[in-house]
Design goal:
- The structure is a single chain.
- By secondary structure, the chain is mostly beta strands.
- Helix content is 6%, strand content 68%.
- Strand 1 and strand 2 form a beta hairpin.
- The two termini are 44 Å apart.
Length: 274
């Protein structure tokens, strides 16, 4: 009997190694990292659809936020708010200014976003957590090419997807996220007065979508402090804007629009959760 009791104790002890750590009702996180950023605009399809210009380079960034977890009768629900900022390290513009010759120059780029997420748990046990993830966000981007004009973009968007976490030990887990991004409304301001036109133009962009995938590792250091490391990829496909006109002194009005564009970002980040 003593041997049986000893074996049961060993089995129970070893199985507890694989159990998920107890989640805190309220937690905070701070991350820092770098990403490879690429923004490309394309000509209309009736003009061949070729590349008009590209802005690319490395960005550094920080993000922070809070999670609130509530246990209900039949499920667990999480809420999260997140803020992130990314700024250019060495971004560069390659293209042309209006209809002029090919042009390359340094570019000053940064963007930030705020998101709110609601995450009901679909599966929640000692080994695995699967959550639905529904969110809404706002993204602002500033771009200024040297010796050219400034531009700013606003995206109001929603996200939907799944978040999963597998506990490989009592202190270590692997997590992943896959989200669809849908543009609700886009606004784009081009500061043409910077290059001698009579007005700045405010465009709207009504169609766009994207997605974001992330894979990471979390390690619990003490009961209330964990370190996280992850890699991610994000893509945006935004349709062309409406047409507006602006003039220079003594010239006929010139039509302008914001072309169809793609944004790709590949990044890594490390942070703490407490």
């Amino acid at each position: 009997m003593k041997k049986i009791a000893l074996m049961m104790g060993l089995l129970l002890g070893s199985s507890s190694v694989w159990a998920a750590p107890q989640s805190k009702p309220l937690s905070f996180f701070i991350n820092g990292g770098v990403q490879q950023y690429s923004y490309t605009e394309f000509a209309p399809q009736d003009e061949g659809g070729g590349k008009l210009m590209n802005i690319s380079g490395m960005l550094w960034g920080v993000s922070a936020g809070a999670n609130l977890q509530q246990s209900l009768q039949y499920t667990t629900i999480e809420q999260m708010i997140k803020f992130a900022y990314f700024g250019g390290l060495d971004t560069k513009y390659d293209g042309r200014i209006q209809d002029g010759p090919a042009y390359s120059a340094p570019s000053n780029d940064y963007y930030f976003f705020t998101e709110y997420h609601l995450m009901p748990h679909i599966i929640h046990n000692d080994f695995f957590v699967l959550k639905a993830d529904l969110g809404i966000g706002h993204r602002f981007l500033h771009n200024e090419v040297e010796t050219s004009y400034r531009r700013s973009q606003h995206y109001l968007y929603f996200s939907s997807g799944l978040d999963g976490e597998v506990f490989v030990s009592s202190r270590t887990s692997i997590f992943s996220k896959i989200h669809y991004l849908g543009l609700l409304q886009g606004w784009h301001k081009t500061y043409l007065t910077d290059v001698g036109y009579d007005r700045d133009l405010n465009f709207t962009q009504d169609f766009g979508y994207g997605y974001r995938v992330e894979l990471g590792l979390k390690r619990l250091l003490i009961s209330s402090l964990a370190v996280e490391l992850s890699a991610y990829y994000e893509f945006w496909n935004i349709g062309a804007s409406n047409f507006l006109t602006a003039s220079k002194a003594g010239q006929k009005p010139t039509p302008f629009f914001e072309p169809h564009n793609h944004t790709h970002t590949y990044g890594v980040q490390v942070g703490i959760r407490f």
